[in-house]
Amino acid sequence: MEKVGSMCYITLNVMLGKASHSFRFHCNNETCEIDHYNSLTEGSFVFMHLPLTVEVLIISESSGQLNLSSVQHLHGLQSIELYNSDVKTVSMPTCYALSIVAIINVPLHSMSLSVNNALRKIIFKNTALTAIPYSVRQQSHLIDLHLTNSRLRTFRFDSLVNLTDLCGLDLSQNHLSTLIPDHTGRCCPQLKEVSLNRNRLVYFNFGLLATMKQLVSVLLLQNSLRSLSNEYPVQSADTQPVFASLTSIILTYNLLPVLNLTLFVDMKALIELHVNNNRLEHIEIKPGQVPSLKCLKVCGNALHTLNLIDLPELIEIHASGNQIRSEQDVHLANSNATICIADNPIELDMFSIFKLFFTSEMCSSRAK
Fold first, then answer.
1. What is the pLDDT of residues 27-37, one digit of tens each?
2. What is the pTM assigned to this prediction?
3. Please, are residues 66 and 89 in contact by the beta-carbon 8 Å criterion?
4. What is the C-alpha to C-alpha distance for residues 365 and 349, in angstroms, rounded to an integer?
5. Strand 144-148 relative to strand 110-112: parallel, antiparallel, unpaired?
6. How many domains is the chain partitioned into structurally?
7. % helix, strand, coil for the chain, step of 5
8. What is the pLDDT of residues 166-196, one digit of tens each?
9. Angstrom distance (rounded) from CA 64 to CA 14
10. Are 330 and 306 in contact (CB under 8 A)?
């Protein structure tokens, strides 16, 4: 093997119990493929980075461990990815340049990771994790954290208090049914997007997110939500308005029977609200509560009326697939607003004065 310089990127692609083990690493803009290994001890596989003679222990099959913590000459390592392995425990090296860690399709139970000021993104996907590992929760400069397709059932927001630079949190496709608030008032002041899609939430309190003053988007698609609230578990010492930056909420594919816009009274910047494919029979609103709302999507519900007279900025409404029967059931504040209302039991010409758009194609393409 030719000398290619110091290692800066390594991808481990390991399938225990299979005949082949392949490793790829990237050094000084050159990619080296290794399709064989030296078995120095039973159940252990290593590859050699020659002529520097850097030995990296990849897998100890008997213990199900990946241990890079004692490996030298990895200080310039920038990214580590582990895919399709039977590893249950990972010990990461001290790499001061390490910025990305990805562990995908691995039955990971625990992970040891030194504090690293360069680390910006961690991805756990399809693992056996039931919580964010302690060593990950200490990475104060982390910007993006993804823990998806895993085994979270309960999540504590106070586990994030040390992640002061976190901007993106994705906990989609777990088994979450319980969310425990942060009573310190210090959780994720820089967080911009939180995704809780495809979990098992029946109830959600937006007050859990009140300490996240930079929050822009909340994604709650495809849970089993039957009720919402907005109660603050703790009063923050920060005088910045709550939800001052929140512009988008996605509640599509849940079980909500009522959309109570009074819950969003603190969300003065809210522009877009998606509540498609729920069980809505009624929308409750009072004047001045969501003054910036421009786009409302409530397709695939059971609404008989659409009284939106108290939403003066609303210019785009998607309400196809409801039970609206006559023009007297629709009230808009803005005469220039466009509304998509296909698949309702109404006479089309009764809505001409509202400049309604009835094309099913527009509804299906823009209601998502």
1. 444 444 444 44
2. 0.82
3. yes
4. 23
5. unpaired
6. 1
7. 10, 30, 60
8. 999 999 999 999 999 998 888 999 999 999 9
9. 12
10. yes
